[in-house]
Specification:
9 helices; globular; Vanadium-containing Chloroperoxidase, domain 1; 66% helix; mainly alpha
Length: 209
């Protein structure tokens, strides 16, 4: 079995619990309005770039870079990202098609937007960036196999997820669902690869094949 990653999962469960309490006690979108009032020029710049932690190109670049270290690491990162992203897109475009994003839901409210960020209006649930960020970061935490890595990589994934609310691209529930989806897929991939540890192919490197 893969490394247990107790710290990563403990933090995720804590965030899910806190998020569930908030959602039960507030109206849909209250968190977007609250965060939207927290905008500042410095935070706008920070979250504009922090959100790229969940970009597909970032996940692909890290996965391909892992080929230089160990083939298994590359497979783990790319499979976790690819499968979780595919599921997220199916949910966004088929199961929950046209779910409004904050910009559409609050069309009559003067939301603050960040310059240079393309604002989307549909296919809100779940958050694709949150899904990718958690899939990538749990994969890296599994590879690191130390509690410190759990803490660092969970923090980065949570930062990417929060950026989606800050940028008015998603609701809290979208990011929580994305976090669960990305984490779940990455954990299944890690478990599968751990069961293949006796095979030769996961341990190879690109150099010296």
């Amino acid at each position: 079995m893969p490394h247990t990653n107790r710290v990563f999962f403990g933090l995720l469960l804590a965030c899910l619990g806190a998020g569930a309490v908030f959602l039960l006690q507030h109206n849909h979108g209250d968190e977007v309005l609250a965060v939207n009032r927290w905008h500042s020029p410095a935070r706008d710049v920070f979250f504009k770039y922090a959100t790229h932690l969940g970009d597909g190109l970032v996940c692909l670049a890290i996965g391909l870079g892992a080929l230089l270290v160990k083939f298994r690491y590359a497979v783990q990162i790319l499979a976790s990202y690819g499968l979780s992203s595919l599921l997220a897109q199916l949910l966004k475009r088929v199961v929950f098609a046209d779910t409004p994003r904050p910009a559409a839901f609050f069309k009559d409210y003067p939301l603050q937007f960040v310059d240079g960020v393309d604002i989307l209006y549909a296919n809100s649930f779940p958050s694709g960036h949150s899904t990718s960020a958690f899939a990538l970061c749990l994969s890296l935490a599994c590879i690191g196999r130390k509690p410190g890595f759990d803490l660092v990589f969970f923090g980065l994934a949570a930062l990417a997820a929060f950026s989606r609310v800050y940028l008015a691209q998603h609701f809290l529930v979208d990011t929580l669902a994305g976090a669960c989806l990305g984490t779940g897929v990455a954990w299944l991939v890690a478990g599968y690869l751990a069961r293949q540890s006796g095979q030769a192919w996961p341990e190879r490197r690109l150099r010296g094949w």
